[in-house]
Amino acid sequence: MSPLSTLTPRTLKKPSPARSRLRGGARYAPTLATVGLFLAMFAVGAGMYPSFLSGQVFLNLFIDNTFLIVLAVGMTFVILTGGIDLSVGAVVALSMMVSATLLQQGWNAGAVIVLVLLIGGGLGLLMGLIIQYFDIQPFIVTLAGMFLARGLCYVISLDSIPVTEGFFTGMAQAQIPLSGDLFVSPGVLLALGIVAIAFFVLHHTRFGRTVYAIGGNEHSAMLMGLPVKSTKILVYALSGLCSAVAGILFSFYSLSGYSLAAQGMELDAIAAVVIGGTLLTGGTGYVLGSVVGVLVLGIVQTFIAYDGTLSSWWTKIVIGGLLLVFILLQRLFARKAG
Amino acid sequence: MNEIVPVVEMTDIAIGFPGVKALDGVDFRLFQGEVHSLMGENGAGKSTLIKALTGVYTIDSGAITVLGEPQRFSTPGESQAAGISTVYQEVNLCPNLTVEENVLLGREPRRRGSIDWKDVRSRTREVLAELQLDHIDPGSLLSTHSIAVQQLIAIARSVEINAKVLILDEPTSSLDADEVNQLFRVIRDLRDRGVAILFVSHFLEQVYEISDRMTVLRNGKLVGEYLTRDLSRMSLISKMIGKDMEALAELDQAPARTRAGSGAGATPFIEAQGLGRKGSVSNVDLAIYPGEVVGLAGLLGAGRTEIARLFFGADKADEGSIKVKGASQKIRSPRAAIDKRIGFCSEDRKEEGLIGDLTVRDNLVLAMQASKGWARRIPRRVQDELVAEYIEALDIRPANPDALIRNLSGGNQQKVLLARWLVTHPELLILDEPTRGIDIGAKTQIQKLVNKLAADGMSILFISSELEEVLRVSDRVAVIKDRAMVAEINNDGVSVEDVMTVIAGGAQ
Q1: So where does this one cross the membrane (chain A) (predicted)?
Q2: DSSP letters along A188-251, please?
Q3: Which of B154, B211, B455, B479 has its CA 20 to 30 A from that of A333?
Q4: pLDDT of B42-81, one tens digit each?
């Protein structure tokens, strides 16, 4: 699962049929604006703090946000269909609690991971089925899913549970050296692998194109004979699965399970997707944009850390401001297109 | 063509919804290489029949065979797999995707599990070229094209599917004349290549121009199947509305109105010149004088309600002008219309007019309160007086101000709706189907009331599907056909048949 060679910024420029389809037009303007914003922020950072302009600072954006990248991938699928998934943060916490508890009881790491993936995917599938067959707003169904998953965390334990199992601590400490003294964590490779798969699925499979079609006009998609029902259900299952993966990645990162962890992370994921150029109304956006969205959120945090005097709550304020600006931008683009 | 097996054969089809039989024992046949029109007024069951054939609705009973194979569709996908493709009035494609994707969505050619975008491009070019639409860039976004082009792209999609049956549901309703010609060229081309085409349109002239045969439905039942060249426009219309000429002539014996045309010489209350709206109606020249009732006559779906909505500002006109009391005005919203003392009793009193869960009093007061502004509450005593006055004047039953609207009969609901507008003292009252679905007694009361209001100096625009009623109430009649006003007749002894002749009247 590591075709990451297809994903470094350099090889992305390689022309492929999909690239030529991606080229040109206002379609990419929101995403390009995000890329521009990211580069500008990086340049400003480099100007203010000499040590900012280092490869490792850039790589740390990935290392510190692997779980958010994976969440944003799942969320991109959901939002592209015009839906929303509020449960992802709570499912991350639940995945961490389940892993920490079972590992403490001596379960095998592989078995724990499989079980966690099944729980996350299963919860997502269940929510998708309810949304589709009872025709209920995704907002409400996934809100219920959020309370359920968070509640289950409290049932498991109110206290933080440390993870001391060998595989997890190994993953937490492992560094994969790149050129020079640069390195990434194994989680980064996994997250980027998932991004690559998501990109392929969205742009090169019928399932992916159906996701876009549903977001463009669900009724039309139905009348065109596309498998609308199964696609919508699957999208929530995918998001649940991504949440479980993100939970495991977060466990590698934090080496504990805590029922209050990942509070509000669903909103970070939604913010990253929107800042990355995906329209909340569905049908327009790119998974690579969502990754850049995560990097933008990451660089805001890095700024606060470098400054040292600002409260970390400034991250939230800046993200809120950015979100507002990007939603207004989207509205402007939509008006022009319309 | 009798010996040929039909491409589509529907036998004894029935579909019901709660409280309604939308289709009841309908037979329908569609042959290869023909354009077949499905005719009927709104609500006759045309859309339901199409949706049965496209798998949107599942039939309750009856049988569908496509190319000799019995079929029972429960999803649009199944219908498409059987070779049936549909282009709807509101184009059902995805605006956020490219032309080529829309043409091939769900059937993209794949190589080793991945969509082969090069092949997508070349296949799209091929099918566009086949339809002489090479000027369309396959890589452009669908939303950058006009509705007309989008419709052609939808047709390209069905050609790509290799559809044996192409259903066109009101394809021309938002196209201009050139675009219609282009569409017809493509339709004829496909017909000559053996595609069976089912065409539905409200435009009589287009139906006569393009179709070879027609099937007429009325109230969910089959009236008959005819060759277009054997069925005159007159007999088609009488089959659609369900009354033959003799019966219509007799009904006309009813006494016509005997009110002096009060308008001559005076300034009209409202005067429209060349009024129209793209995709809705065009070419409305109509003046209504104080104290005059003007009727709109035309088939259901001809554009009567659309004209009313333009007068009331519910839709914005994009061509022509309106004068109110001689002064040029733009009516941008219902609010603006109400300020100019125009009232509109809508066709659909449940959806757009009355609030069923409020009482008679509340509904009456609502309009009055809205015109006074929300801040100044109307005192209960004044409310009581007014409500009692209107209940008596219009003979609303039960004469109980606190009865819930939804418990009143249709006729009495209609009277409450009328009263609601009368409370605001409009100078022009637009009545869209005010007597539909109400009993004969209430109907007569409402007709009398219309006369009385006009006698008191109000201008009234009266819309009804019942021609005899229009003639009984109106001083003048404007004839609407194919979404344009085609004639204006002074109602001095005009018969229903005369109006029908105008509606059926030859080419545009």
Answers
A1: 28-52, 58-79, 109-131, 138-163, 183-202, 233-254, 287-306, 312-333
A2: HHHHHHHHHHHHHHHHHSHHHHHHHHHHH-HHHHHHTT--HHHHHHHHHHHHHHHHHHHHHHHH
A3: B154
A4: 668 888 899 899 888 889 999 999 988 898 888 888 888 8
